[in-house]
Amino acid sequence: MERAKPAKKKKKNFYDYSLLLVIVVLSCFGLIMIYSTSYYTAQLRLGDGTYYLRRQAMILAGSFVVMLAISKIDYHIWTKFAGLAYVAAVVMMILVNFTPLGREVNGKKRWLGISDSISFQPTEFVKIALILVIACVIVRLLKNIDRPQAALVIFGLTVPPGLLVLMNNLSSGIIIFGIVFVMYFVASKKKLRFALIVGGGIALVMLAIPLGEQLVNAGILESYQLDRIHVWQNPEAYAQEGGFQVLQGLYAIGSGGLFGKGLGNSIQKLGFVPEAQNDMIFSIICEELGLFGAACLILLFLFMLHRFLIIASNAPDLLGGLIVTGAMGHIAIQVILNIAVVTNSIPNTGITLPFISYGGTSLLFLMAEMGLVLAVSNQITLETL
User: Fold this and answer.
1) Within the chain, what is the greatest distance between any pair of CA atoms?
2) pLDDT per residue over 281-299, tens digit each?
3) Model pTM score
4) What is the enclosing helix (H) or strand (E) of 353?
5) Which of 86, 172, 188, 290 is the most buried (most CB within 10 A)?
6) Which letter, b or e, does each residue of 219-244 get, where b requires 16 or more Cβ atoms within 10 Å of its Cβ?
7) Contact 98, 111 (CB under 8 A)
């Protein structure tokens, strides 16, 4: 008798629907919280309590389409435009900092455009451009990645856009350098030097006030940035410089208890926490949904990072793995910074909570970044009988 031939294994492309689901859940939860936190302010100032909700919902709908479209395109195609994207990012930051096209909003010059309705924050584009460029560079330098020359190239590419962002946006500058740090750490085989860098960063935080005073005297930091350090150390004594917002955020967190006051029942959002739908939205989540709600949100972010790790580990090549690693570093650093700021664990850096805080530019480019991650997952092949 002839032996039956073993069935050939069929290959099919994988698509991470689990990641897609958590993106949808976080985005929808963000809309709910934006409506809850902004209704009073929007009704009082604009006569329309749904103003911020409607704007965010429209941008979310368009951004979701962009994400799905990018997720179906081979991510290798985008590497052809990585150099052009990098140059465009640097040029846009120069325009923001040194030309009339840079628009100042709430005392911060971070916007590029010709009017309030036609403008965006190029720092969000810088993050994606750097992820693509650094991923391409690491792939090319992989055999020599631990040599000083490779570090100089990677550091040299990061510094121009990083410093341009740091001039007016400390938090985004930290995130940009952090993304590159994570990508380089993953690619390198020598990990000790990265531990030394982290130790040095902790030492800088401990010396924040004297170092900040020296940087202000040297003209590197603005005085308002030093005020944030003072507020962090003693918010009661520096209430006029920003301590009031920090204290009200802490009151919101403390008053929420275990299960919160209930959705929509926050007191602190009624003008006590300024612009509650932006950077401080996590404090209102704690007040309305309590520690339980805040913990559930953190678990959602942890699950997202877990999916990033799964995709990066199974990526078809190093390039895909590094792109996902960059996105993972971005989300992790930004979430940690936002929660740390709201809880006054670090000085206020004015950073939004991904997918949750109000902001069209950040949401659009964040969704584009998620599209890249899903595109990498779509290139993973599964073998089935």
Assistant:
1) 91
2) 999 999 999 999 999 999 9
3) 0.89
4) none
5) 172
6) eebbeebbbbbbbbeebeebeebbbb
7) no
